[in-house]
Amino acid sequence: MSDTIDNTLTVPAFRQITVPLSDGTQLTARLWLPNGPGRVPLVLEWIPYRQSDNTAVGDSMTHGYFAAHGIAAMRIDLRGSGNSGGLLRDEYLSQEQDDAVEVIAWIAGQSWSNGNVGMIGISWGGFAALQIAARRPPALKAIITCCSTDDRYTDDVHFMGGALLTDGLQWGSGLFTQLGRPLDPAYVGDGWREQWLARLEGMEPPLAHWLAHMERDDYWRHGSVNENYRDIQCAVYAVGGWTDGYSDAILRLMEHLDVPRKGLIGPWTHIYPNWGTPGPAIDFLGECLRFWRHWLLGEQTGIMDEPMLHLWQGEQLRPYPSSLTLDGHWITASQWPATTNHHDFYLGDGLLTDAPAAAAPLLIDTPAHCGAMGGEWCPLDGGGNAPEFQGDQRADDGLSVCFDTPVLEAPLILCGKAELTVDIAFETPSAMLVLRLNEVDVHGHSARVTFGIHRLSRPDVPAGQTFPVVLPLKGVVYRFSAGCRIRLALSTAYWPMAWAEPGQGPVQILPATGRFRLPLRTESLPDKPDAFGPPRSAPALDHEVMAPEVTARRLSWDAGSNTHRLTMDAQRQKTRIGELSFDSEGHEAYEIGATAETASWQAERRQRYQRPGWHIELRSESRLAWQNGGLVLNSSYSAWENDREVFQRQWEHRFPARIKTIGG
């Protein structure tokens, strides 16, 4: 954490409290109340990640900072998580939102409250802020939603453009392990074990829910605020990073919400911007305070007089799996879509040309292991330091069909979503087409600026007959440098990021029908190089790092079996707070041979909590593979107390192959 700690702050001590719900369930929380008299607003963070230990250090730095500046703050554990009662069965359930509406009303009714509540959150907490805002609790006046989405199907960790993402498998196995974490007897007392065992008995593998809904249906529509943006009536500040998986949602929220709103997209991955990586990190908590003071205290901080969007204009992207670098500076936009010009390129014989060119049809039939340099859809979403960024794209480019511009004589600034329009054909019921937009420098290094993954189905046309498609890439603001080339790379595989699906064959494209449109920045979008100061936070809760994080990511190829394998190993940081120590580890393996049917994934995870006389260990295993044309998910879970197994269960779930879908 790279914050500058403000040791001059007078940070009030947190209070450990419980919040009662109408059904008798008790939720546990940490509450920071500002010193001094008077009624104050409160900012709520609503997540299931254990405020008493796992998130305690970061919570103290963030919520302590708010409280030191006159804004009360609360970190509460959802029903069935941490030391809260009840069961947590899946993401974003109606019960979770009902509980939040109750909690917000409870907060507004406290003697110290001025009746105004804000919500802040990243990832799950960011989703929750949007979803609960759509429920319109009267006291909720504003939200800051970070690294979240308005669309749980087409733009979440589970699917991209209809294709199953393996980031969702990772997250599913991680959440599976977390669901069985114990209540802490130091907070709950003698009834902790009975509640813990009930929590274990009520578990199901989350992946089983998600894989049962491979198409967009009511399961995914629930919690997707793009179903009706008008449901949100409070002020919204949407925040994220271009390197994160969720940046497109910020642009859509700015376009479609009809409330006071602001957006901020930096170079970062899945992390709060005051800890932002790749840098620069910024004074995000100071920005939050300006927003909170405006909407919760009625002060004129000037924040709503500024342009709607602050965007990082990247340049000179240097890909490296453990340390991606994205130079650039801030620009602003007063609306979205921003006012842009566009430039159309056309598909020639391996070229992107400024005028339509004759070119023969091309068959794209990519080796199944293409994509190995793609990194993760959402790098570092677990908060660690694993080598999860993209690598040099030349290896994947060599397996793809590529179209290059001539060397650029002047810079070109992309601002928005690039889009390919082209006629295609395929014989199979569905197909996948992956588009990567790369910058190739003078030395031949290839960096992925943005990309799109699309699972396509044939409309009402016979197999092999051509039809037009419009294929967008993720939005971005990026300056292609003079002396470089722009490359459009097309493939029918993107392993391991996109799960390989049997029955998806080659795709024929007609380059002569192709148009690749780039929206270009205009001078009406001003530079703002000094938009934000350096990061600041409150001092961290006393803790000890007992062991640092150790991670590894290894690619290998067995020439005899033509099997490609990716393994990922992570021993997370071991931390001690008081007498309690906690840590976790994870091991994953992806394999694929020459065909999609050979794709497999498995994960093993462990989490440990320990203090004198109390030692809990949780173990989970997950495996997904194709079998007899369908998917088979095998899961197992065991829980140990003081080296004695107290729970063990295995599951097998089978899912038929998809027949039809609508591509991204």
UniProtKB/TrEMBL annotation:
InterPro entries: AB_hydrolase_fold, CocE/Ser_esterase, Galactose-bd-like_sf, Xaa-Pro-like_dom, Xaa-Pro_dipept_C, Xaa-Pro_dipeptidyl-ppase/CocE. SMART domains: PepX_C. The keyword Transcription regulation does not apply. One of its GO terms (molecular function) is dipeptidyl-peptidase activity. Pfam families: Peptidase_S15, PepX_C. Residues 289-535 form the Xaa-Pro dipeptidyl-peptidase C-terminal domain. Keywords: Hydrolase. PANTHER family: COCE_NOND FAMILY, PUTATIVE (AFU_ORTHOLOGUE AFUA_7G00600)-RELATED, PEPTIDASE S9 PROLYL OLIGOPEPTIDASE. This is Xaa-Pro dipeptidyl-peptidase C-terminal domain-containing protein.
